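Field: sequence (string)
Field: structure_tokens (string)

Example rows 1 and 2, in order.
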Amino acid sequence: MDFGTMITAMVTPFDDKLNIDWTQFENVMDYLLEEQQSDSLVICGTTGESPTLTEEEKLESFERAVKYARGRCKIIAGTGSYDTAHSIHLSQAAEKLGVDALLLVAPYYNRPSQEGLYQHYKAIAESVNIPIILYNVPGRTGVNIEPETTIRLSHIPNIVATKDCTDTDQLTQIITGAAPGFLVYSGDDSATLPALAVGARGIVSVASHVIGKEMRTMIDCYLQGEVKEAARLHGRLLPVFRGLFLCPHRVPSPAPVKHALNLKGLHVGGVRLPLVDVTEQEKQFIASLFA
């Protein structure tokens, strides 16, 4: 299955009472696919505030996304957790709703061993028939899926890709050693171009909510051999890549990108506790990124 080169981890839009705004949910999908040129969408990933969505909200999000996409893109459901049994349950439910693939974050908090990670993913993979994308984000989970473990998992037939938020050294090790056809995506917007340079397929992005068209041009330039132009675009986009995550006080995603979308007139609301909305100072900083 081809997920393309630019996958957007979609925000979950909320109304003023922090309930999911289903009308805006569809509007955001249209905007990301048509205006920002995303190839695929992750629904209920970290950027979609999966930790504070109920299971019922996740399942309805998967179902609505599949129906509204109408085959325009691949729908990737975030169904991973620190509990293997519950991950299996949610993954099987998402498969029945017709999603194209699953994104499975490494188990967080309980910090399993590398063998535990392997067995966790193997058990989920054996419980479904659709493709699985691993999601390695040590800064959030407290555990790194080591390259050797990812390579080992790449030989399980329906584990087809990884979103890896580590450095290009680790990406290179995976790309070099993984099973033929296994896809590697960076999970760090600022590493999009360096990741492509070492053989990654593309990016699972947050910044593509607001600069997707520009990222698409950068990616296409690189793939067409226009390396200098791709590097120039990377330099121009880097302040936005970094700004959306570094803000003045390192505001956790997705609060900054939600505010950026609100500034663009695509009202996606605030964030649920324990996340908090950006401050006035942070709002000014985010606005300055697009001045």
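Row 2 begins here:
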Amino acid sequence: MSMVDDGTERGNEAVDEPGWEVDPDDESGAAVVAAVGRQIKTWREAAGLRAGELGSMLGYGEDLIYKVEGGSRIPRPEFMDAVDVAVGAGGKLAAMKPDIAEVRYPKKIRELAKLEAAAVELSAYGNHNIHGLLQTEEYARALFGMRRPAFSHDDVERLVAARVARQSIFSRSPAPELSFVQEEVTLRRHLGGRMVWRRQLEHLLEVSELRHVEIQVMPTSRDEHAGMGGEMQVLKFKDGSAVGRSEGDFGSRPVSDPKHLRIIELRCGIIRAQALNPRESRAFIEQVLGET
């Protein structure tokens, strides 16, 4: 038994699968995956290889090669690199990795990631768990792992990968202004166990040091709280437009109508005013970490 780069185990029977299942409701994503699969098949046949032979070369079963070629399986980047070498594509198949990089994530997450990638300002309030952009990989894995009905292991890893990929927003240039307000309970709930929780708190302190990031804590002891309706978020863009979402309002869907946005922005502003300021919040997080 050996471990491959993507963390899956390969046995002698080569039964592990090099990617993720295609979402049948994601028509545009399915079309991209199908096109990539056809290219792989074309290069394999041109190289004079049967599907089983290619599978043996890569350490996968024949059926899995057919799944990728048939567009029912989204190949991982390392699979594309390996098949490119095996069929002598000279980098042409490996060059298709950006085409499948986005579609390997659920459609809703892709749409959110695109909005975040274009935003020049983000304001968010979280009351159940740490905001996705602030989560460590281990925390995110624990969070998805406790969902009910339970996600499959494959789905958990796919969702974790998508969440981690979104965090490239912190290294963008020019940097967007990012503001987060976290409910105190999200800092005290030991999701994933004590070590995962401690690392998450340490990560919040690390991120709070970035000049374009503000993290605030809403203490449970507050007598006034404008966020009792649930989590919310506002994204603003370079052209002056914006998109907001507030749990329980407007169907919990993203809205861009100025009248709806005004309500969400008003609440976000009041929440920031009611929460501890960034310096006080950092001290609060350090205190919670020190209590462990």
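free_text_note (row 2): The mean pLDDT is 89.
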